[in-house]
## 1
Amino acid sequence: MFKSDNLYKAIFKSMIGRYSVYAVNISSMMILARIFTPEVFGIVAAIMVFFIFFQLMAEAGLGPAIINLDCLLSEDRNGLFGLTLTVGLVLSLGFAALAPAFLLFYKIPRIDEIVPYIAISLMFFSACIIPNAILLREQAFFRIANASFAAEICSTATAVGLAQFIDPLHALAAKGPVSAATIFFFIWYFSGKTEFGRPMPGHKFSAIKPLLRFTGYQFGFNFINYFSRNLDNILVGKYMGAIALGSYDKAYQLMRYPMLLLTFAMTPAIQPVIRKHAGNPREVEAVHRDFTFKLSLVGAAAGLAMFVFADSIVLLMLGSQWLNVIPIISILSIAIPVQVILSTSGGFFQAMNRADLLFLSGLLSAIVVVGAILIGIIQRDIELMCWYIVAAFHINFFQAYYYMYRKVFIIPLHKYLVKMLPAATVISGMVFWSWLF
């Protein structure tokens, strides 16, 4: 019998560990926003969009596939680790070689100077894939949080210290590789105290074969999800410049913090717990319905708070040089309730072994979001683009849960939507207020 207490206990452990990391993340943002200008942040953000794409190719769905495994031979574990190291090295060299192409694409001066820093970060990220998945499988959230906590402190201190002696652009860019290296060394060390053990470089690359079906769908989802989540940054940077991108990126980052504090702290716990009950969809649905209902209430409260206090939040978190972020964050905050709920859906699809549906839903989501972004870019208006993105998130909420309820839980969707009415009321109120004033 699947008890919801099991999920909530795992979520609680994940949240406690992650909140310490988010606290130092927020502190880091507040410090760095007062040292570096929106233009410097915009230049780094422009390259980080492509860094995320290369991360996606390096990970290729391996993490969730390993979490679902019941056993893993040491030879296979080392082979997978060796494979990720090799792929990471190749991708890092390829990323570094693309520096002239990034400069040609964006036409933002000096953007090529920070590419080597990001290439080093990519190498360490790739090395971290296998040990991190092993820790997640065993719900070792505190150990993962300790690694992230140490990485944020070390990387922020490095950026602040270097800013006193070298060019600000290079100082901020150096934060990435220091963070990635610190996380890898901690995660790799901690993985030694797990069932699968600490991975060492191996040559049995064929160990990937049994995982290909799952990783194929997962990679496909990640690939299309990348464009729906990052095309806005790419196009804003290209057509509106580094300053506009810096402001938009910071607004989006602020909007994501409630999700970081709520669902991103919870989602690592979902797949490891739910996967054990994948054969009982009705029981999983009952837990899911209860879980997301509570989440919708908290998400609605967080969205409303950010909507009402947008000006104070921007001044407190970023400072007076970021005032143009206020109208952007006010609009994006309307999407927080559905985003909070929607960001947990992937964990349930994965745990129920329906990566195929996750891929299909992600494909439809990408089409809707990309269309919204393109319309906004064509109109050269960031605020209008934000409205279109908010609408796209709500459309994607309906299609994702349609597939989950009709294809996974085999239950009509309307029974679930009734539980979302309180959050929907808050969202409607924010939209009405925005249009009225």
## 2
Amino acid sequence: MQREMFEFFTTLVEKISGISYKEGKEYLIESRLNELALTLGYRNVEELYNVVKSRSDYKLINEIVDSLTTNETYFFRDQHPFDTLKNYIFPELFKKREKEKKISIWSAACSTGQEPYSIALLLHEYFQSYLKTYQIDIYATDISKKSIEKAKTGVYNQIEVNRGLPVVFLVKYFKQEGAHWKINDNLKNMVRFEILNLLEVSQKVKTKFDIIFCRYVLIYFSQETKQKVFRDLWNVLNPGGYLILGATEIAPVSFPDMEKKILGKTVCYYKKD
């Protein structure tokens, strides 16, 4: 891929999504955009480049951003954050929120939905009695329209359900439909999916949350964007709530009301009451 094209596409993606592609990612960019170009009826990525440069096509620009921001995900990814939810965070929050009887959870950058559905599965499997008396909201967002559309269906192929999902959960909470598996409606209905750009959290997210999962997202941002996104997430976290990043990530900024806690094998950022 020519340097001029690489810089054009990476600048475009960073401006819209905040995701920063460094040099060395030319092959990834070119392969994903070539695939998109052919899908849209163009001969190659060069023709796609010329079209985007010559006219401002919002739909086409969104397709490009979509193709370059779809990230890796699978059920119960890393496992230990879900063990921490089960063993520490949920028991604590159910006690703390006994009066309000309401817990709000946000899976930010949820990709195709495996993370929020894993949280819903966990609640059904281990906290069934609380589901009858508490209102539990799971909000799940991603910048990718394609990912959110798939997440909303709750339908996964055999490879996807084999990744991280215990067989006992598959049999108990999914229904087989041909070569695919569909998550049961009672779990699917627990999750509300929306398209959301994390650069727009301060303008668009008006709810406060008790738990925020934002894993393996900040690593794609510049330091300045990391700080902005983290600050915005912190502002919508309830006092007494937890923010969980990916296993290899650390908070890019700290606040007076922030306490770093290690619960089990998981590093959590706790917002002091």
## 3
Amino acid sequence: MTSVLIVDDHPVILRGFRRIMEDAGVETVHEATDIAGGYRLFNRLRPGMVVVDLTFRTGALAGLSLIRQIRTLARDTRILAFSMHDDPIIVSRALESGATGYVLKDVPAARFQEAFETVRSGRSYLDHALATRVAVLGLAGQPAPLADLTARELQILSLLGRGQSYGAIADTLAVSYRTVIAACASLRRKLGVRTLAELIHVAVSHGEAGPAR
């Protein structure tokens, strides 16, 4: 593999990625700092591997849409999702969208390099603890298909499970309070629950599907 595309909006992380990949013998490292730029670069250059951050400045899980777009354009592309989220719902969604591997942002550089090399070789990568939580989530059953949730709804569900109020969620995602209320109404409808308490119970049950990190 001679080229890799990194899509992330943090300059320090981009520099760190570039150093690791150059040390690994990657000849060309392309960079994009937003989803639109990442899509344009991928469509034009078709690198063999893409490293995608899931969350950008807007707070939404925009990286999921890019993963789906890349997978549609080129089914054999190796995609490593890179995120701060260890929620098994979000991990599952990234893998369902087409990511070959998933690694957390707080891992040591050596662990990221392991994830990178594994995905680069064409194999899937998921940390054992995360893999266990995702597996337990699947075995526990789901109140409704998670595939029906939008990226924004999925993130709001995760934040509800972490105990955040409507106002705190609005601040975290940089959206209006009314937007959060509307999204929670949509979540209740899709997940088949009637009250906020029931919705929070669903969110917590998914967030606790495995051992805490």
## 4
Amino acid sequence: MIKVLILYYLSLKPTHGYEIQRFIQINHMDKWTKIQSGSIYYAINKLQKEKLIILKEEYGFSSKARRIYEITDKGREELKNFVEKELDNEIFPSGSDKFIIYPLLNTLDKQSMILHINNHINKLEEKISYLKDWEKIKINNKSLGVERISFEMMISNLEYQIKWHEALIEQIDQCINVSKDISNLISKFDFSNAEAIESSTSDSIEKLKQEILNNPEQASEKLDELIRKLSK
């Protein structure tokens, strides 16, 4: 996921690894997904070798050098491919990359997303049907409690995954709007300058998302307000 987040960030503007690292840290992404900010420079090197990004310019010398990267056309195509692929992936109970997929939704067209999501829901429903059939065969009044609960946990998890994806389709327009405004925020604000940023900033970002969902017509005004706060 870290490679995709780098591609996403660079699709919005050329920047250096430190800014992306700070964005991850400020938003606590490493706390509830598999993203690790410490692996960002390794991922950048990999992306450069794969010709998905290129070095645009470099400031400073040796270890203090700041390297500015930009995405290539191949990188933009790879980003779209990943978002489509991620929509087909299952959600893990915790630490799932899919929990932060909605900021990337504006990289795909709406109908393509809905198609992928509906196809994935169908696959989840097939798995539930299979598990329920197998549960009837395996579970009886002599079964151990751990066996019974194992089936309950698997089925329940799949059912919640379906609810998550149905909510995504139901609010697809709002999610796309949030995605666009998060992209706009990243484009306008340099997160690497937020050295003294406090937890209230993360609260402000979360509040912005909610205000965009509830009052999309005021999204642009609220976004400008948040950028002014971040830039102080």
